[in-house]
Amino acid sequence: MSDSSEARERVLQAAAALFRDRGYLSVTMNDIAAVLNVRKASLYYHAPQGKDQLYTEVMMRMLAEIGDGVRSALAAAKPDLRSQLTAIALFHVTHLPFDTSRLFRTDIRALPPEYAYEVLMAGNAAIFEPVTTLIEAAQTRGEIREVDAHMVAVTFIVSVQSLHEESEYKHKPIEGLADQLVRLYMDGLRA
Question: What is the per-residue burial (b if ≥16 Cβ within 10 Å, else e) of 44-53?
Fold first, then answer.
């Protein structure tokens, strides 16, 4: 593999696709090398600390993109909670699936502490904090009742991300499912 930023970018993209699809524990440096058709030793030029470093760099990039996308979606939304949650839900369902549950449940726990902390903080900032902040602001405005804002954020995001499977298996438009989910969170199950 050449000594260029283009080669490094190919390594990061290949690793990103594998980590996104299979998670940290199920991907080896051999898997990444095989996708790129290079020797495993070549990867260490781009990631001297190995898989932990590569995973962390890939996740930090993905999480930054998610954070940017969420901020853009919110900037275009009306300033009420329903519109804001809908904007976040639509952002998540119209982009590549990202398994937040796996990230926090298994991947971060498998990383060495110095990498785990960095990914944990970036994940919270990009994925959960925007929703937590919206819920807290809606509570302050009297728009919704008092709730554990972080718990609502976590369940909302995980529910939104699960819509990819629902859409795929039930052959329903994902945007409509996102709207139904926001209505469920805002209105509950009562008739």
Answer: eebbeeebbe
| CATH number given to 50-187 | 1.10.357.10
Task: Name the pTM for this structure.
Answer: 0.90
What DSSP line would sit under 151-180, residue for residue? HHHHHHHHHHHHHHHHHHHHT--HHHHHHH
pLDDT digits (tens, 9 = 90+) for 74-86: 999 999 999 999 9
Q: Which residues of the chain have pLDDT under 50?
A: 1-2
Please give the Cα distance from 114 to 125 (Å, whole number). 17
Nearest Cα neighbor of 97 from 189, 174, 25, 41 is 174
Domain residue spans of the chain: 50-187
8 Å CB contact between 83 and 77: yes
Residues in Cβ contact with 96 at an 8 Å cutoff, skipping those fewer than 6 apart: 20
Q: Which residues does 186 contact at the CB level (< 8 Å), separation at least 6?
A: 81, 82, 85, 144
Residue type, 112: P
Could you tell me the sign of the dihedral formed by the alpha carbons of 127, 129, 130, 131, in that order?
Answer: positive
